[in-house]
Structure formats: structure tokens, C-alpha cells
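Quick one:
INPUT:
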């Protein structure tokens, strides 16, 4: 996910689509003692916790899109059996709620978030994990990189969380299957065949096909964009080293940190996206959708030829849902990279973390729970279910899931009601990806293999990103807020002349906001962190 987090509202969107359309009802042999993740050996601690008095902890989940509002189902029950802990979640209403809670110091036992790391990484609000580990969970051994990442958010020499979904380049190179959750392009293979199977190997090929679709199928939108991923796949292919993430920072080949709008290739992306719009291959309405279900409705109701979404089993899901809506021949597949030597860049640091707040009523059991979550057993149970019941390990190092699991995974509403694997607090991205690679189509496996082989992990955009309440953070926030609206304005320019005018306006404003000075400051900060 997606940045990797982006990815995570998809399940709730699909559930909404299932309701709207009245449809019927998702290891590795890698050692999960991950260098990129926590490297926990928690079985002993977890067993000890399970024998203690049961504990219920309140957790604030800072993601309004999160799959579930309560931890009930097979996996939550198994976690409680293993750890003795039951989690009572509260899902965020919006993206501002946590900031208000922090400002008033009105916090629950645990906070799971991808924001305000530097503010929460303080003894004013949170317990230091290293102190808790030394007192209550000495066999919990996060990796050096995980600790370095977490310490980068604190002003003292402690770390107050360990980020989930991290993995090293070496782990990805050794992975048996799968890839990170990144942007991907899906398209209708059956429609392509009806068009005579024209080539889809390059972006020029793809653009020509969109024109053919527009002419032959006037009621079909050639390209529909998911609300989260939007045009990310084209940024991946057209802006070398572009890195998805909240900061919008990227590392150049000569190890400088820049805002992605400063990339020399940024204008190529804008021109291509504007060409898609001017030719009528995507709509302005798509940029105004309030939630992802509007785009998904078009996709599963035979109103879209291609769809920007994300890697994994997504094409299989869309095929199943479109066919259930009465389009029996519909077949969605994922596109292979459409540019030579495409690099898929992602942060190797993880994307979200759990903070054990100073309001926590049982910090001992909380750190022991996190130890277990990061362990191999914890990761596999939370992502794959019960070994021997929900999956068995194949000789290829990929879990083979039961029919019940596969059937439930085909309907996200059923999956998160029956199994509820919404425990991403301690996962490794490799463990997650290997599980997602099980039971998917060969096309999906092939595309994930291509992405994994072209994967590049970077950490400096995360480590050197400016902290809250600094001048640099204010400038970066201003830039990103401006770009959020102005980039759409450029992409939706009605003519080449309007495009140039809007692009020049954007460039001038970015310079006035101080993007170049910010990049120089952050590059120096990144060098100091090496």
C-alpha cells in the first residue's frame, strides 16, 4: 500500500458497491524476523500474556476508510486466545480528529496512525517502546533500520513506535511472489480482443487503444480513475524515481531530495495526462468523485475499459464483480509496465505505527501484544488465518488457502465479517504480499513478478521529511496543498494554450512558495542522516 496506506480504503469501497448493486457474497519461507520490520521472537512472551488475566485495550484507528469498526471474527478470536488481549477499536471520522485529540491530550490506550509521528514520539503523549521492551518484553528485537526510522521522529534518543509494512531490498529480492501494494493499470481483455487484439506494450499503444474504445463503445469511458490512486500509475511510468507518499518527496539518481514537481520529467506526465483528457479518454467528473465507490460502480457495470487501481488480486475481483452484474464475458487483467526499465519506487520504512499512549491502562500487555504482532506467528495469523485450517504452506513457499478462505476473500464484506484480517499493526510487507499472491490469476502473478524485479526501495524521503511545527513543514504543506488543486487544473486544461498558461502559473507559484530552498534544506538533512 499503495503510498502503501492508500491502498487500504478499498475494502470498504467494495463493500459499499456490493450493497449498492445487491451482489452476493484476498508463507513466505522468508524468515519473518524481518530486517525491514521488527524482527520479533514473541512466542514465549505471547504465551505468557495469554495465561494472564484477559485485558481489553481501546485503540484509535486513524483511517476513516478502515475496513472494520469492530474486531470480531475468526482472526480476532484467535489473537485473543494467543495474547489474552481484546482490542476495542474506534475508527476516525475524518483526517483532523487525531490532531484534536492530541491537542487536548484526550487519547485512548493505543493509537494506530500514519500521521503526527513526530508529535506522538514524545514522552508527553506516549511511552517509549525501548523502555517498555527492556522492562516487559526483552525478546522483542526490532531491526536497526526499524529503530533508526522510528527515532528519526523523536527529539530524544528513544523510539515510540515501530512502523508496519516495512521490508528491506534484500527481503524483496528473495521473496517467492507478490509485490508491494502499488499503483497498477487494469483493462478489459475481452474488449481488447473484440478490437482485434491491438498491441498494449507501450503508452503510445495504450493511447491508440483508448481511441478505438471511444469510437466503437461510445457509452464506455476509456479510462476511469480510483479516487486514491488516480493518475499514480502514469507518474510511476513517466517520472523516474517518483515515490508515492504523504510528503510528495523523491530521491534523484544523484541522491538529492526534491519535490516531485521539480523532476524534469514531471511536465511529460502532465502533458500525457492532459492529452488523455483533451481526447475525451477520461472525464472531469472523475476528479470530483466524493468516494471510490463512484468509480467502482462504473467499472463493475461495464462502463469502463481501463481502471487505475493497485496491484494484487484486484483484476480478479473486478472480473468477478462485473460478471455478477450480468456481463458474463468480462475479463479484467493487469497491464505490464508500459515503459522500458520502469522503476517502481516505494519507501522501505513502513507506513503506519502503533503508539502506546501515556493514558494506557496496561503498557506491559500492550508492548507484549506488539511483540507478538511483529512475530512470524503473529504476522501469519493476522494475514493468512489459522495454519492447518485456513492455509497450509506450499513447497514453493506460498500459502495455499482453504476453499472457505478463497470463497470469502471473493466478497470483501463477507471476508471482513467472517475472518477480519484487519490487523496491520505488525505486518511485514513481504508477508502480506506473499499471501496476496496466493490463488490469483497467472496474469496477476506475472505483473507482480515484473514489479518486484523492478522494485527500488528508498528511505530518505521518509527520514528527512520535515517535522511538525517547523518552518520547513509549513512550506511543504503549503506546496502540497497548492499542488493538490493546481495539478488537476493543469491536467484538465481545455487546450494546449490553457495547459501552458496553467503550467507556467504553477511553476511560478511553487518558486514563490520556496520549493527550491526547501529541497536544499532537506537534501542536507538527508545527508546528515546517512
Amino acid at each position: 500500500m499503495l503510498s502503501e496506506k492508500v491502498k487500504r480504503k478499498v475494502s470498504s469501497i467494495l463493500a459499499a458497491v456490493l450493497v449498492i448493486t445487491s451482489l452476493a457474497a484476498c508463507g513466505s519461507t522468508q524468515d519473518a524476523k524481518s530486517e525491514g520490520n521488527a524482527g520479533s521472537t514473541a512466542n514465549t512472551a505471547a504465551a505468557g500474556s495469554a495465561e494472564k488475566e484477559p485485558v481489553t485495550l481501546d485503540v484509535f484507528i486513524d483511517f476513516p476508510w478502515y475496513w472494520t469498526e469492530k474486531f470480531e471474527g475468526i482472526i480476532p478470536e484467535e489473537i485473543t486466545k494467543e495474547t489474552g488481549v481484546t482490542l476495542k477499536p474506534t475508527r476516525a471520522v475524518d483526517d483532523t480528529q487525531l490532531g484534536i485529540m492530541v491537542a487536548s491530550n484526550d487519547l485512548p490506550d493505543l493509537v494506530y496512525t500514519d500521521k503526527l509521528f513526530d508529535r506522538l514520539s514524545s514522552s508527553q503523549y506516549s511511552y517509549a517502546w525501548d523502555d517498555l521492551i527492556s522492562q516487559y518484553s526483552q525478546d522483542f528485537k526490532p531491526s536497526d533500520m526499524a529503530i533508526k526510522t522510528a527515532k528519526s521522529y523523536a527529539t530524544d534518543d528513544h523510539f515510540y513506535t515501530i512502523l508496519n509494512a516495512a521490508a528491506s531490498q534484500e527481503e524483496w529480492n528473495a521473496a517467492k511472489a507478490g509485490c508491494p501494494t502499488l499503483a497498477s493499470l487494469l483493462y478489459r481483455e475481452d474488449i481488447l480482443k473484440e478490437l482485434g487484439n491491438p498491441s498494449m506494450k507501450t503508452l503510445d499503444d495504450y493511447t491508440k487503444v483508448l481511441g478505438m474504445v471511444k469510437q466503437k463503445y461510445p457509452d464506455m469511458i476509456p479510462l476511469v480513475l480510483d479516487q486514491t490512486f488516480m493518475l499514480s500509475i502514469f507518474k510511476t511510468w513517466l517520472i523516474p524515481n517518483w515515490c508515492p507518499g504523504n510528503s510528495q518527496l523523491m530521491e534523484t539518481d544523484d541522491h538529492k531530495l526534491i519535490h516531485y514537481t521539480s523532476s524534469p520529467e514531471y511536465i511529460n506526465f502532465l502533458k500525457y495526462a492532459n492529452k488523455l483528457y483533451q481526447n475525451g479518454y477520461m472525464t472531469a467528473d472523475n476528479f470530483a468523485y466524493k468516494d471510490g465507490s463512484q468509480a467502482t460502480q462504473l467499472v463493475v457495470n461495464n462502463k469502463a475499459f481501463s481502471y487505475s487501481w493497485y496491484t494484487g488480486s484486484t483484476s480478479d475481483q473486478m472480473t468477478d464483480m462485473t460478471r455478477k452484474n450480468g456481463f458474463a464475458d468480462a475479463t479484467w487483467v493487469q497491464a505490464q509496465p508500459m515503459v522500458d526499465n520502469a522503476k517502481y519506487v516505494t519507501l522501505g520504512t513502513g507506513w503506519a505505527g502503533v503508539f502506546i499512549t501515556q493514558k494506557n491502562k496496561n503498557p506491559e500487555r500492550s508492548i507484549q501484544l506488539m511483540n507478538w504482532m511483529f512475530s512470524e506467528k503473529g504476522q501469519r495469523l493476522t494475514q493468512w488465518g489459522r495454519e492447518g485450517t485456513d492455509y497450509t504452506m506450499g513447497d514453493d513457499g506460498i500459502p495455499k488457502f482453504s476453499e472457505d478462505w478463497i470463497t470469502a476473500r471473493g466478497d470483501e464484506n463477507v471476508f471482513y465479517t467472517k475472518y477480519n484480517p484487519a490487523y496491520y499493526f505488525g505486518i511485514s510487507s513481504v508477508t502480506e504480499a506473499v499471501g496476496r499472491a496466493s490463488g490469483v490469476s497467472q496474469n496477476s502473478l506475472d505483473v507482480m513478478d515484473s514489479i518486484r524485479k523492478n522494485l527500488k526501495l528508498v528511505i530518505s524521503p521518509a527520514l528527512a521529511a520535515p517535522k511538525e511545527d517547523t518552518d520547513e513543514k509549513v512550506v511543504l504543506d503549503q506546496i502540497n496543498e497548492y499542488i493538490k488543486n493546481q495539478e488537476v487544473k493543469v491536467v484538465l486544461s481545455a487546450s494546449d494554450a490553457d495547459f501552458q498558461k496553467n503550467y507556467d502559473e504553477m511553476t511560478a507559484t511553487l518558486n514563490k512558495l520556496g520549493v527550491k530552498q526547501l529541497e536544499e534544506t532537506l537534501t542536507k538533512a538527508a545527508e546528515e542522516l546517512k
